[in-house]
Amino acid sequence: MLSKKLTVLLCLALAAAPVCECAAQGTSGSQFLGIEMGARSAGMGGACVSLADGRTGLFWNPAGLVRAEGQQLSVSHVAWLDDATYQFASYARPLGESAVVGLALEQGSLSWDNTGEGDFEAGDFSGAVGYGRLLRPNLGVGGSMKYLASSLGDENASSFALDL
């Protein structure tokens, strides 16, 4: 049975969830983070947060890192129309029986010329380092720190993010 402190902590975390909601699609930066990583998740329409395991945990749910069985590596490259590309790589490594550390890199770019005056380019990058720990059988916690960078023509922006 859950202790009172853990129950209160879980209730506070659930109450804060609506506050952490992201802005509507197309009205915020780093839109590339909405691209689903992996064929399994794309086939499920992105409904796989609770199924994130091992190397995909850093993208979907850092607590899923604890499901890594041995060292895992995942690499993905997607080439879309009009010179748009997207790359994702992630690595998970167990640290003993109940902890896992992970690293993920994500990059997307787009280039086009609709004026005849040369290419116009846009690009995004995300790098994440995460940690997951198994508290009990079937109960894990995790977190990751991300660095985000975007460029559009000559303009650049960057930020940090935290996933728990």
Low-pLDDT runs of 5+ residues are: 19-26
What's the overall geometry? elongated
Q: How many beta-strand segments?
A: 6
**For the report, how would you describe the main beta sheet?**
6 strands, antiparallel
Structural class, from helix and strand content?
mainly beta
Number of helices: 3
- What portion of residues is helical? 10-25%
Instruction: Encode the helix/strand succession as letters.
Output: HHHEEEEEE
Give a description of the structure.
This protein is mainly beta and 164 residues long. Helices cover 13% and strands 44% of the residues. The chain has helices at 4-16, 39-43, 57-60; strands spanning 72-79, 85-94, 99-112, 120-136, 139-152, 155-163. Strands 1-2-3-4-5-6 form a six-stranded antiparallel sheet. The model is unreliable at 19-26 (pLDDT under 50).
